[in-house]
Design a protein that fits this description.
By secondary structure, this protein is an alpha/beta fold. It is built from 17 helices and nine strands. About 1% of the residues have low confidence.
């Protein structure tokens, strides 16, 4: 029997609306914080046993309809030749941002990048996928993921979470270098997804979080062709594909043509509008995660209103417009998950 999450990705009828939330394994959970007291972020990302533990915890604790492998969109960069670290955040504010000591600035830097071999370079991710599948025992599907080329490039070129100025300037000052960089990052994304799917991932999400920084003409030249190649690779691997970005609702109709089964939208567009504008794909989203920080009654009421607005047509997955924020009460998350599960059109 097809699980409701997979059915919704394929725009098939479901018994109830599926729900999962980006960053559902994270610092808002006491169980996650307990793990992080013992290991660094990268140590966690490189331990198959801990990957499985923190990935499965929100399924057990909160009842989501899909799990997403715990990892990071930059975890493959050391295998490509970049010196990646995560700075320690201020006390009480969680992890610091990523830092790359040898950022990509020239065509020579791009040419020096290697394409990772997931079996050799990222075995902990693949072993983590297998351990999660064993632990889930078929209860819910597992989503694998990678970062999209532009978003990963923004960290690689800027040297961390420092904006987009250098990368955007590269597009215009040295477009051949930019295309060479996106080519390598696209190949890196595809081999990672193929390996995750072979290891047991049952869907794949592409996180192109910062794509809203680009103008349409730059998207058409430097982004959409690469994203379409990733979608095609996932299609050939035989699992549903999900595209995620923020600040891109003005491009929704175009995004729906890239070949993804599901397009995830943020809170900047009414969910009914998103479904009407992209009828040929499933829609995921687009609850504002800040609502989870407020009164629980309001959080539940807003979730129910969004479900009504999404409408009964198959092909809808309840999710956030971005990830769960630090400080979110787990009991509020559970109340929203329960409200989604209880929602009915009868």
């Amino acid at each position: 029997m097809t699980h409701r999450f997979i059915a919704a990705c394929r725009r098939e009828p479901v018994d109830r609306i599926p729900v999962w939330m980006m960053r559902q394994a994270g610092r808002y959970q006491p169980s996650y914080r307990a793990v992080r007291q013992k290991v660094s972020f990268l140590e966690l990302c490189r331990s198959p046993e801990l990957i499985a533990q923190v990935t499965i915890a929100p399924i057990d604790e909160l009842g989501f309809d899909a799990a997403i492998v715990f990892s990071d969109i930059l975890v493959h960069l050391p295998a490509m030749g970049l010196d990646l670290s995560f700075e320690k955040g201020e006390k009480g504010k969680g992890d610091g941002g990523p830092r790359i000591a040898n950022p990509v600035r020239t065509r020579a830097d791009v040419d020096a990048l290697k394409i990772p071999d997931p079996q050799k370079d990222l075995p902990y991710v693949l072993d983590g996928v297998r351990a999660i599948r064993r632990g889930l025992a078929g209860r819910v599907p597992l989503i694998g993921f990678v970062g999209g080329p532009f978003t990963v490039a923004s960290y690689a070129v800027e040297g961390g979470s420092q904006g987009f100025t250098r990368l955007k300037t590269m597009l215009w000052a040295d477009p051949k270098a930019a295309h060479a960089l996106f080519e390598k990052l696209t190949r890196a994304a595809i081999v990672q997804l193929e390996a995750q799917i072979a290891a047991g991932a049952e869907a794949a999400q592409i996180f192109e979080s910062w794509l809203g920084e680009l103008a349409r003409e730059d998207l058409e030249e430097f982004s959409f062709p690469y994203l379409a190649r990733i979608a095609e690779a996932v299609r050939k691997a035989g699992v549903p594909s999900i595209f995620f970005s923020t600040g891109t609702t003005s491009h929704l109709e175009r995004l729906a043509t890239l070949g993804y089964d599901v397009v995830s939208v943020d809170w900047r567009i009414p969910i009914a509008d998103a479904r009407a504008r992209a009828p040929g794909v499933a829609i995921q989203g687009n609850y504002d995660s800040t609502l989870l920080l407020g009164p629980v009654d309001n959080a539940v009421a807003r979730a129910r209103a969004m479900l009504r607005a999404a409408g009964p047509r198959p092909g809808y997955i309840f999710n956030l417009g971005h990830g769960i924020q630090v400080g979110t009460p787990p009991e509020t998350v559970k109340a929203v998950v329960d409200a989604v599960h209880a929602f009915t059109w009868k």
